[in-house]
């Protein structure tokens, strides 16, 4: 699986080249399709947790996976907006694959995209390391959680349950958006397939 | 209706019902969307799946809100119907519009730069191939005695390698077919937003506002 990446392409003014746009979209679609495969896992978790009223935990346990495309594309194509586009398109794929969210996925995609993007904005698109990745994780968790306060009615829950959900979401996002993303980037870096 | 306008309308309404709590409006939206989908395209298998899969998250939200929520059974029903409203609103778009038309109108009428419209479209058209590629990556790993899960970094690594290669190929192919970034283009298929589109858009949006304002239950 060798490839001929043109490192010389990167000196050009804007990073929003046709190639990079297609690359972001392709990575987003790959992620969307990989996650779509675990739709049954989400459903199974929901079914298992519904009798005790803990179904929202299924959402929060898997949140990190759904928010992976953002940090990945944001880290690979280092320019403003790439994390947003990647995350949004990843969610849009689910809509077209016929996921169980319908129009909700578009909005979730917008919200998650803003969440992922903000982290890189906070670090000024200057540094791409463990710090900016963690900033992105933090903003993703806060923004998506604020959204679920309304959309999924979290604001009607008592504080202990809210804290439980928040911590679950943070751990999930940290594992998938943080540790897993870092491992993937390391593999890419070592392979010299892509000049980061 | 123009696909771009339709998508905008659907997303706006979905956004609005996320913040409002009217059970009746949710049900009306579901009924109207359902009728629209039925008129446009009768496919019972698709319809069945549309009703079946969201049942789990909807029921899950309902039960947890019922047991632990402070807002009572009415709000639990609002959340239940909200999930279905999203799904059927979304279906009015996905079941009746094509991605190609959407990106054409986004480029021609919504001033999206052509490299985004055609770049993303090109990638979306590879969707069947991408599905295949995910299978190939998993299968070839199995042949080496490795099992790839959603948490395996190597699965994503290989997917990204394919993406890098394909994006290069696609971009080159588009360039060799005469696509020039940031240059004005002429269009073989012209999509316009008509007066009718605007009328439908505004009337429906106002109707939703009026309903949300009047129907509080």
Present the secondary structure layout.
The complex is a heterodimer of chains A (about 200) and B (about 220).
Chain A: H1 18-36, H2 39-49, H3 56-66, H4 69-76, H5 82-97, H6 103-122, H7 130-151, H8 159-191
Helix pairs in contact in A: 1-4, 1-5, 2-3, 3-8, 4-5, 4-8, 5-6, 6-7, 7-8
Chain B: H1 3-19, H2 23-40, H3 44-52, H4 55-68, H5 72-94, H6 99-108, H7 114-125, H8 127-143, H9 153-176, H10 195-214
Keywords (chain B): Membrane, Transmembrane, Transmembrane helix
Membrane topology (chain B): Multi-pass membrane protein
Protein name (chain B): Transmembrane
Describe the 3D structure.
- The complex is a heterodimer of chains A (196) and B (217).
- By secondary structure, chain A is mainly α.
- Chain A has a domain at 65-190.
- Chain A is built from eight helices and no strands.
- Chain A has helices at residues 18-36, 39-49, 56-66, 69-76, 82-97, 103-122, 130-151, 159-191.
- Chain A is globular and about 50 Å long.
- Chain B has 217 residues and is mostly helical.
- Chain B has two domains: 3-98 and 192-214, no CATH class; 114-176, no CATH class.
- In chain B, helix 2 runs parallel beside helix 5 (72-94).
- The interface between A and B is large, with 74 and 79 residues.
- Chain A: Keywords: Membrane, Transmembrane, Transmembrane helix.
